[in-house]
Amino acid sequence: MNELRKLSITEMHDGLKRKDFSAAELVEAHICAVENEKLNAFVTKTPEIAIKAAKVADKYFSKQKDDVIPPLMGIPVGVKDLFCTKGIKTTACSKMLENFVPTYESTVSDLLLKSGAAMLGKLNMDEFAMGSANTNSYFGPVENVWTRKSDGEKVVPGGSSGGSAASVAGFLCAGALGSDTGGSVRQPAAYCGVVGAKPTYGRCSRFGMIAFASSLDQAGVITRSVSDSALMLETICGYDSKDSTSSERPVPKFSNFINGDIKGKLIGIPKEYRMDGISEEIVHRWEKVSFDLKENGAEVVDVTLPHTKYAIPVYYLVCSAEASSNLARYDGVRYGFRADADTLEEMYSLTRAKGFGKEVKRRILIGAYALSSGHYNEYYEKAQCIRALIRNDFIKAFEKIDYILVPSAPTEAFGLNEKPDPLIMCINDVFTVPASLAGLPAISIPVGLSNEGLPLALQVIGNYYDEAGILNVASVIEQSCGRIIELNN
């Protein structure tokens, strides 16, 4: 039964079609693993929903022809606890929403469920998606499945989608929904040795996502292979009238474009990403993969993205300002946690002081300051202007090239018990933030292990709505480097 959990989504689908095993057997194997998991990846478990989906899937497989069976039918998945799930507790891993049960379903989780996927539960995350290590959760930190070779130290899984990445890497589910605001799908995927894909902003609906920074938040997927990412993205992408930022652009079948043919493609290496603090081991892998792409017919060229150095300060100003506005609704009046107090003003104050964690309060304060009447033009407005320059850098680059290849993170995962300075934590997102500010699609692919036996990763960034292209390039890298997670079995 444990061997079933190590199959890819594609392999699970093929096995179900051949009747090698039933959806009930597949789901039961994953439920047992989730019940006994020690990573703290799940905060809410829903075995009854998964079992029900498995029964429906088995009936479906017994009656339908192969060509009409949805690829996620009967596949065990997890959902980040940022997506509202009707009748199932959704907390954003905050005390503020500790007992919140939505009366509606997020669009992307609804699409997963309607495709026949078996939801095993809700996954741990940094509170309100604010963090890069999954150590800010009200329900405690998530552990990575990888450990440091020299001292056996447990390491962080990355964040904010740490529970999603760890659950996929730990074979607790075949794929997982995450969210990516400044790299929160790609960076944890990099730390856990799995694949993390973020589509173009607007490609999939934000309806039902608990908002952090609305102009940046985007659903994404974490899987163990590039082809699996394509299948999940096909399922969750598409226009949604309930989201005003949702794109009406047709969604192709991404998996049809994964053919390994990159001959003549121009892949850019931005000089601005060769910065201080990046691991030499990552630089080595970057150079090796560049060579492999050339061996497969691509041309690797230098490009410039001159405003990259401003990405981190711009991101933290914009996301903190939007978080300050979005989180103003949590006041103890309408729903969520409410502190006991003698006056209304005291109740507001105590509710927010006790309901939010340190990182969330830090960002609310930064955002409120940036939006204040005396500083709006000086900080928030200026940050938005520089954000436009960062976006224009990419637009100009893509006039000459097809894709950009850069690291997913500057270093391997750090120790779970290490407490980096908050400013150091921000730097973990230095390579993922620019694509998020520009709203571009990007995918992180594991490319090897460090001397400490920890995953290293690169990411492919594509032009707007070219998810199919980045998946194809990623598949070539995957073929060259192998699936790193298989080394940790």
Query: What is the CATH architecture descriptor?
Result: Alpha-Beta Complex
Total domain units: 1
Query: What is the number of strand segments?
Result: 11
Helix % is 25-40%
Morphology: globular
By DSSP (H or I, 4+ residues per run), the number of helices equals 16
State mean pLDDT (0 to 100 scale). Answer: 95
Main sheet strand line-up: 1-3-2-4-6-5-10-11-9-7-8
First-last Cα distance: 15 Å
Look at the structure and give the CATH class.
Alpha Beta
Q: Which stretches are poorly predicted, pLDDT < 50 over at least 5 residues?
A: none
* CATH superfamily (homologous) name: Amidase signature (AS) domain
CATH fold naming = Amidase signature (AS) enzymes
In percent, how much strand structure appears in the residues? Answer: 5-15%
Question: Secondary-structure element sequence?
Answer: HHHEHEHEHEHEEHEHEHHHHEHHEEH
Structural class: alpha/beta
Characterize this entry briefly.
This protein is an alpha/beta fold and 489 residues long. The chain has helices at residues 2-5, 9-18, 23-35, 47-63, 107-114, 162-169, 186-192, 226-236, 280-295, 311-326, 344-355, 358-371, 377-397, 422-427, 433-438, 467-481, and strands at 42-45, 76-80, 118-123, 175-179, 195-198, 219-223, 266-270, 299-303, 403-407, 442-449, 455-462. Helix 5 links the parallel strand 2 and strand 3 (118-123).
Structure description:
- With 489 residues, the chain is an alpha/beta fold.
- It has one domain: Amidase signature (AS) enzymes (Alpha-Beta Complex), CATH 3.90.1300.
- α3 (23-35) packs antiparallel against α4 (47-63).
- The longest helix is centred in the last third of the chain and has 21 residues, at 377-397.
- The protein is 38% helix and 12% strand.
- The model has no long low-confidence stretch (mean pLDDT 95).
